[in-house]
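re: ur question from yesterday

yeah so i grabbed the chain u mentioned. its 398 aa long if i counted rite. heres the sequnce exactly as i have it in my notes:
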Amino acid sequence: MEEGKAVALVADDDPAILTLLQAFLRSRGYQVLAAVDGEDAWQRFLTHSVDLLVTDWTMPRLNGLDLCRRVRSAARDHYTYVVMLTAQGEPGSLRSAMEAGVDDFMNKPFRPAELDARLHAAQRVLELHRDLASRNRRLEQAHQQISHELELARDMQMQQLPAPACLDRVCFDWFFEPSHYVGGDVFHYFPVDDAHVCFYAIDIAGHGVPAAMLAFHAQYQIIKGRPEIAATIADCGGDLRRASVRVVRAINRRFMALGQDSGYFTMIFGLLDARAGRLAMVQAGHPSPLYADPATGTLREIGEGGLPVGVLEDARFEATELQMARGSRLYLCSDGIPDAANANGERFAQHRLEQVLLEHGSQPLPQLRDAVCRALEDWRGAGVPVVDDISFLVMEYA
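ran it thru and got these structure tokens back, copy pasting raw so excuse formatting
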């Protein structure tokens, strides 16, 4: 077929009408394929890109109605405009044809002027479909590009998270599952000096790219401020409670300086004397951590809430002190865990999380982490999306 010219397929078992249709359509600039019945037309349709199909209703082997149904069921990006030639004018028959996907009708015997008008209508519709197909292709290309870039952003976000590690006597493990390509949950742990370890967990309000960008910013500010944290501990004479409050106040001031549109985030910020087991922790609106006491085999919540970071410039924060026992663990979870819903909309809830932690609390950290992850997956079930970022961080004082 000649490239750039529209293709018309004509199907009619009447040789005279078939000849007339071919001649007329060629005179209007179409490349014409001819078929003597519906099955012949279907085979030609399968091997050509057809713009216009003019078909008789009543034909042997395959009638025009069934031919149209096959055309509409074909997985083609290219739209085919269908004109049905019929001597049947009953409303019920026309409704059946329209339901099968027929675009227009002409009575037999056809009149050239009428067919010419039908072709003008067909051309307008085909141009609209070509324009729509072109727009869809551009949208698909843009979607693929955005998806690729978001995948890169997700990989970068995962690379920013720390590897499971032991720092002096303190060991950490975790898992993270964003609700989108990238998420607003972030956490880290690192040595501040020879004696102290800093750890934190952040949950940015919102989801997706904006939340992830704020999470990157918050992460950068805290890690960049490691020397400042060490200086604050020294300035407070080793008082970790005072030092942790001062650090969080500084984080809040810097975040508020970004402007009113920056939003806010909840946070757990902790400083630990790794040798003595003394812990001070600020809870800024984040879910309360759970402390696992090895002596009693019980869990208890630590902290009483507090105001999120980024709400008030002069916000007051308080720190909770805790003496970590040998073998004790501290669990930090975002609200995406208790809020995880199954197919019926029922929440996983805090009591199910605590049950998993109690059942697997004596296992090594990687096995415990995997048990929590499996419990959440089993609860959600296959095909249920993650609607909120999920982060789980466990700290063990060995």
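noticed a couple things. The first helix runs from residue 15 to 27. also The chain is about 40% helix and 25% strand.
anyway ttyl
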